[in-house]
Amino acid sequence: MGEEPPFSRNLFAVARFRFKVADAAGKVRSGVMTAPDLESARRTAQANGFKVLELTPVAERGRGASYRPGPGERFESWERSRAWRGVFLLLAVLGLAWAVASGVRSGAAGSKAKMSPTIKLHLSGTVGVPEGQRENALLIFYFPEVPMTVSRRLVDVSDGSGKYSVDLEFEAVRKPAHFSLTLVVDGKPLAQTPQRALTGDPLQGKADL
Question: Which residues have C-beta within 8 Å of that of residue 3, sequence separation ≥ 6?
Answer without folding.
Answer: 29
